[in-house]
Amino acid sequence: MSTAKGPLKGRAARLGRLMPSGPSSAARTPFVLLVVVLLGGGLISLLLLNSALNQGSFKLNELKNKTTELTDEEQALQRDVDDYAAPDALERRARRLGMVPGGSPAFLGPDGKVLGEPRSRPPRSRPRSPGRSPRSRRRPPQRHRRTPARIRPAPRPPARAPPVRALRRRPGTDRAGT
To answer: Which pLDDT value is given to residue 29?
Structure first.
């Protein structure tokens, strides 16, 4: 802090130290403001990025839980299908429906010969319950309607005859039966 006349002394020296000499501080203000704005913008963008990642994390966790739930449901349904497809379960349900095991099958070869020995079905292993006959199961439920005394319901047709089975050819015979 000196002037053209020489160094300042006393009170002038103290005042000279308070006043900066050289470039002014006004040129630094826009730069500092720019740095502060960039840092603030960076912090805000990091906050928004962090929020978006947290939201994605919650969505991912929710989807994982749903996947686990659906996988458990699929496994339960697959167990049910396996239980229904088991041979003993199929046989039980078939018997409840009145089905019986088939005999040994016979096959027709490409030349028309019968391969194998066909047999009729085996006899029923369980007797039918006396209260239910096959005809009573086929009858549709009756609606409760009052019929006048002079009008009589039509008589029921006789029981159906059992279906006629196709005649089997004996092995070794041709198509004409000779």
So the answer is: 87
